[in-house]
Design a protein that fits this description.
Blueprint lengths: L8 H17 L17 H5 L2 E7 L12 E7 L6 E6 L10 H10 L4 E7 L9 H7 L5 H8 L28 H15 L5 E7 L1 H11 L1 E2 L2 E2 L4 E7 L10 H12 L14 H15 L25 H9 L17 E6 L2 E4 L7 H9 L15 H7 L9 H6 L14 E6 L5 H13 L7 E5 L8 H4 L5 H15 L3
Parallel strand pairs: 3-4, 3-5, 5-8, 8-11, 11-12
Antiparallel strand pairs: 1-2, 2-4, 6-7, 9-10
Helix pairs in contact: 1-3, 4-5, 5-9, 8-12, 9-10, 9-11
């Protein structure tokens, strides 16, 4: 097992709370002394609060055996009696949930551990120089040159290597079936020792959550042993794609790249822009932006004046200046400062912390993972269109989707749906449809709509006030008492 992590003052507070809870309530917490070992790059590792591991995944016949793995970032004490398993959205990685997971562990006083799923495609990423940058062993210039600068500067000879699509043709099969089978192994591990499990996801992760809950595992729905479901601005559209659309999508996939072009930006470049920009924001926030002068960075992502690394990152992802095609990457983090050369970032009026969001995408303090998925399987997004709130439909047989138990969930299942700018009321509506199908009563639903105030990523990035977390904590407390 590879152990990774970081603990700042928030981590120290969480550790203290867990220790107090253990003393008061029994063996559901663990004390980790604040030794000098907790102060380096891997200080969360030493504190024992964050661990990352790869586990054996689904044995997909077309995939090389070394890639048949699924990763899990575990936050909180392994002695916690409850586990919240979270699925990242499109083009996102497990580190995306780290700050949120730390908040949940702290607010639940260590009674919940949070597991964030790292999908198999992220094994293809080259995190080597990002790791060095996060440890302070290379400069921001060296980081930029390795991943992006070489594309316009032929003098850079030691650099990131692109993966030809022909070398990963097997990834065209990494759809919902592979994803759900991988996730099944994660959920089963979370259930060990009789722990209660709640499953959730952000954006596309919400569709994955519904797919798992309604999936046919030898006649039994995946939600059989789940105490609750959590939807973070994402879910499953009850209306499936047509058979014609499914067939056309598969044909297009066979003739094209295995990877989704997020916001029209082809793989792996959005991941590279995101990871390097976020990491630069962490290691050199006030330095002049290197990405702003990069010829291949889309013009609509560039600040109109010379900007710092933090300001250029903020300009590209804040709702006021980020382009519409990247709405799924947006947050409320502020605006360009009124003065300065280079121009800095003004956080006034922000819901979310730009440094927190940069930590989420960079994977600050973590080795070999970040909050992005540089290579997101197009097949997974295609298959999501056939989940249809767990209702059997003709497209499912074409796409090998087995989400057929939408009417068979246990009526005691709890559901929490939070709508932000991208999903909005639709996220609440699809959760209501799923509940109604299975006779889940309204008192088991927590439905919160913040589409007018929360961007797509604010539910995880908002701090210190976070409406998503404020409603999640009592939901988890109820789930911990759920007899289901």
């Amino acid at each position: 097992m590879q152990r990774v992590g970081r603990c700042g003052w928030r981590g120290a507070v969480a550790l203290l709370v867990v220790a107090v809870a253990a003393a008061c309530t029994g063996p559901f917490g663990k004390v980790f002394p604040p030794t000098d070992a907790c102060r380096g790059f891997d200080r969360l590792t030493a504190c024992g609060q964050v661990r990352f591991t790869w586990m054996q995944g689904f044995d997909d016949p077309a995939t090389p055996d070394n890639l048949d793995r699924v990763g899990v970032l575990k936050v909180g004490s392994g002695l916690a009696p409850n586990v919240l398993v979270l699925n990242p959205g499109t083009s996102a990685g497990s580190a995306y949930f780290l700050p949120l997971a730390q908040d949940i562990v702290r607010e639940t006083r260590g009674r919940w551990q949070v597991w964030s799923v790292e999908r198999r495609e992220n094994q293809l990423e080259d995190q080597s120089v990002l790791d060095l940058a996060k440890q302070g062993k290379v400069t921001n210039q060296q980081l930029f040159d390795y991943y992006l600068g070489w594309l316009s500067d032929p003098t850079v000879t030691n650099h990131f290597q692109l993966i030809p699509d022909a070398d990963v043709s097997f990834a065209r099969g990494w759809g919902m079936n592979v994803e759900i089978e991988d996730l099944h192994r994660v959920v089963e591990a979370a259930h060990e020792h009789g722990r209660k499990v709640v499953l959730g996801g952000h954006s596309l992760g919400g569709s994955i959550t519904t797919a798992y809950a309604t999936w046919d595992f030898d006649g039994t729905p995946g939600a059989r042993d789940l105490s609750g479901l959590v939807y973070i601005d994402g879910g499953s559209n009850p209306n499936p794609v047509t058979p014609e659309q499914a067939n056309q999508s598969l044909q297009n996939l066979q003739n094209g790249s295995p990877w989704l072009a997020f916001g029209g930006i082809g793989a792996p470049f959005l991941g590279l822009y995101s990871a390097t920009g976020a990491t630069a924001t962490k290691i050199d926030p006030n330095g002049a932006s290197l990405g702003q002068a990069f010829a291949f960075l889309p013009a609509n992502l560039k600040a109109p004046v010379p900007a710092t690394n933090e300001a250029e990152f903020g300009y590209a992802i804040d709702t006021k200046t980020s382009p519409p095609n990247l709405v799924a990457a947006q947050v409320h983090v502020g605006q360009l400062a009124a003065t300065g050369d280079p121009r800095g970032w003004d956080r006034a009026g922000a819901i979310s912390s730009i440094q927190r969001y940069a930590s989420m995408l960079s994977g600050t303090g973590l080795r070999n993972i970040d909050g992005n998925a540089w290579y997101h399987p197009m097949r997974l997004t295609i298959d999501a269109g056939a989940v249809a709130d767990g209702n059997a439909n003709p497209a499912q047989s074409i796409l090998d989707v087995k989400a057929t138990h939408g009417h068979d969930l246990n009526p005691n299942t709890l559901i929490y749906a939070f709508g932000a700018a991208l999903g909005g009321q639709g996220v609440l509506d699809t959760a209501q449809v799923l509940a109604t199908q299975s006779g889940i009563p309204n008192q088991n639903l927590t439905l919160v709509n913040r589409q007018a105030t929360y961007a797509h990523n604010d539910p995880s990035a908002a701090s210190p006030q976070n409406d998503f977390v404020a409603n999640l904590i009592p939901f988890l407390e109820k789930a911990a008492r759920n007899p289901h």
